[in-house]
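Translate structure to sequence.
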């Protein structure tokens, strides 16, 4: 059933803490900073650790994404840190 599938997913992939460590003042600054919607979306997702990557896909669906290497450099695992820096 749907419920048992969700319980299995929770057991197999425990949730990671996603609470961003920004103060309300920093959030106001972020919201008023002149960014395009696309840029704001990327930064918002990175703050919440929710940017998609091959590492995440490989972790959840290894049969769909058999390797977790960066598609650009092919030498490091594709992760949020690697994407941003």
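Result:
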């Amino acid at each position: 059933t749907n419920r048992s599938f969700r319980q299995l997913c929770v057991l197999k992939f425990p949730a990671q803490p996603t609470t961003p460590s920004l103060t309300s003042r920093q959030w106001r600054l972020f919201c008023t900073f002149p960014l395009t919607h696309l840029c704001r979306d990327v930064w918002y997702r990175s703050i919440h650790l929710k940017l998609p990557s091959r590492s995440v896909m490989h972790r959840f669906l290894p049969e769909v994404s058999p390797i977790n290497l960066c598609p650009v450099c092919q030498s490091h695992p594709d992760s949020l840190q690697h994407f941003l820096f």
